[in-house]
UniProtKB/TrEMBL annotation:
Belongs to the aldehyde dehydrogenase family. It comes from Tetracentron sinense. It is an enzyme of class 1 (oxidoreductase). InterPro entries: Ald_DH/histidinol_DH, Ald_DH_C, Ald_DH_CS_CYS, Ald_DH_CS_GLU, Ald_DH_N, Aldehyde_DH_dom, ALDH-related_metabolic_enz. It holds the Pfam family Aldedh. This is NADP-dependent glyceraldehyde-3-phosphate dehydrogenase. Keywords: Cytoplasm, NADP, Oxidoreductase. Residues 26-485 form the Aldehyde dehydrogenase domain. It comes from the Eukaryota. It is found in: Cytoplasm. The active site is at residue 266.
Length: 498
């Protein structure tokens, strides 16, 4: 399955290492070095990928630049046709790609398949949306601005940015890669992908699906290696025309180092769930479980703090506790709800937050339990603002509950966070919900449902440290273009008489 059949050419069986993708070919790095991908469940090396060199990055950037020039001359319908082909190949090969996700990032097997299928759908939707929005431009006339006659006709259209550098995070290595690749390509750009180390092999398989679809050589490349080693070289490379990054604080550092190029940054979140007295508490409890614990809390859009009115807090906590007790805990292969978190350092970080909350007097609704990278789901009640878990993002199955005495208190906590990705509010009063949504300083507010990025064509953006710009298919296509105008100057004013 993995690295076999149509995927055989991406794997170097002699050295047991996956190859990187440059100039339309699968290659071994001249570094002779590899990077180990540690299976979060077994904590043993599962796969190895090439540790690419700076020279190899230079080569990729050079070919991406020349391939882009030709690609921009490829008709839009043809670009869309190739994307549709890639989408269908991706879906056809969902099983081996999902297997990589299970082994590299311990994603439960059903969710792993869903990620690949969702990615194929995203690519197809992007092809269609691109044809619609890139096929249209604007026509302006000069006499609408004071002092002007109708002597100038302005034609504006969206043109490519050049080479897009895409850096996705470990938690959706396929979906958050194609959410950058497809808009970049339909808009006439070339693309260099640096996949997350955990998730690289899934990403390499996905890239091979684009290769099989027949995209021109050099248009897509994929260089592997640790972000800490080749990351700066990539992000500061003069050949890059735009960086589309999803991840944690690394994104803040990148935005300070990058040159005068557009940045699309989707960073961390501390999504608050505000619960009012009149909320349907069964609905809230179900959404807290789905929002807080799916993929073991390793989603940027996970519910990361519950802010519940004191008068309903006891009832809500009991309902959530009952549901936590039903979550299955174990390996991703068994499709358990809670699976090992991505790395030992991540598990240690989560444990640090739990120990801090314990010392400062949080109520533990379950006993804290950990085995290697596997952390049992934990609800912490009576969390106070002096505890780290009230503000920091655990990216694990640990959820704090803060009891509030007024809605304003909840809104204040949400807005005092350095993050501003999403939030949600539960109430039966839609008027109140709208006022609260307007008061919450986050990129999106969900009313009566847990935060979520999908469906993938919805705008998705974060305020403050949660990001720059907006994602979602339409916004990503727009963000990966710039506006070009041509002005036709007439010797005499010309007005249409009707
Ligand atoms: N807002 C959003 O849409 C989302 C945000 N996130 C956030 O991502 C974080 C978890 O993901 P995680 O993968 O750990 O995030 P990281 O920020 O650690 O890594 C993200 C990507 O950046 C790469 N990278 C690391 N160092 C550098 C560098 N110096 N220059 C360039 N690239 C570099 C990583 O590569 P390598 O793996 O090799 O280190 C990886 O591909 C959480 O904070 C989460 O909230 C996650 C998903 C969605
Ligand atoms: O990175 C994430 O956490 C994803 O963007 C979440 O996507 P979803 O909310 O649609 O599951």
């Amino acid at each position: 399955m993995v690295g076999t059949g149509v995927f055989a050419e991406i794997f170097d069986g002699d050295l047991d290492v996956f190859k990187y993708y440059s100039e339309g070919e699968w290659k071994k790095s001249s570094s002779g070095k590899s990077v180990a991908i540690i299976n979060p469940t077994t904590r043993k090396t599962q796969y190895k990928v090439q540790a690419c060199t700076q020279e190899e990055v230079n080569k990729v950037m050079e070919t991406a630049k020349s391939a882009q020039k030709l690609w921009a001359k490829t008709p839009l319908w043809k670009r869309a046709e190739l994307l549709h082909k890639a989408a269908s190949i991706l879906k056809e090969h969902k099983a081996p790609i999902a297997e990589c996700l299970v082994k590299e990032i311990a994603k439960p097997s059903k969710d792993a398949v869903t990620e690949v299928v969702r990615s194929g759908d995203l690519v197809s939707y992007c092809a269609e949306e691109g044809v619609r929005i890139l096929g249209e431009g604007k026509f302006l006339v000069s006499d609408s601005f004071p002092g002007n006659q109708r002597t100038k006709y302005c034609l504006s259209s969206k043109i490519p940015l050049g080479v897009i550098l895409a850096i996705p995070p470990f938690n959706y290595p396929v979906n958050l890669a194609v959410s950058k690749i497809a808009p970049a390509l339909i808009a006439g750009n070339s693309l260099v992908l640096k996949p997350p180390t955990q998730g690289s092999v899934a990403a390499l398989h996905m890239v091979h699906c684009f290769h099989l679809a027949g995209f021109p050589k050099g248009l897509i490349s994929c260089v592997t290696g640790k972000g800490s080693e080749i990351g700066d070289f990539l992000t500061m490379h003069p050949g890059v025309g735009c960086i589309s990054f999803t991840g944690g604080d690394t994104g803040i550092a990148i935005s300070k180092k990058a040159g005068m190029i557009p940045l699309q940054m989707e960073l961390g979140g501390k999504d608050a769930c505000i619960v009012l007295e009149d909320a349907d508490l069964d609905l809230v409890a179900a959404n807290i479980i789905k929002g807080g614990f799916s993929y073991s809390g390793q989603r940027c859009t996970a519910v990361k703090v519950v802010l519940v009115m004191e008068s309903v807090a006891d009832t809500l906590v009991e309902k959530v506790k009952a549901k936590v007790a039903k979550l299955t805990v174990g390996p991703p292969e068994d499709d358990c709800d809670i699976t090992p978190v991505v790395s030992e350092s991540s598990a240690n970080f989560i444990e640090g937050l739990v120990i801090d909350a314990k010392k400062k007097g949080a109520t533990f609704c379950q006993q804290y339990r950990r085995d290697g990278n596997l952390i049992w789901p934990l609800l912490l009640d009576n969390v106070r603002p002096d505890m780290r878990i009230a503000w920091e993002e655990p990216f694990g199955p640990v959820l704090p509950v803060i009891r509030i005495n007024s809605v304003e208190e909840g809104i204040h906590h949400c807005n005092a966070s350095n993050f501003g990705l999403q939030g949600c509010v539960f109430t039966k009063d839609i008027n109140k919900a709208m006022l609260i949504s307007d008061a919450m300083e986050t990129g999106t507010v969900q009313i009566n449902s847990a935060p979520a990025r999908g469906p993938d064509h919805f705008p998705f953006q974060g305020l403050r440290d949660s990001g720059i710009g907006s994602q979602g298919i339409t916004n990503s296509i727009t963000m990966m273009t710039k506006i070009k105008t041509t002005v036709i100057n007439l010797p005499t004013p010309s007005y249409t008489m009707g």
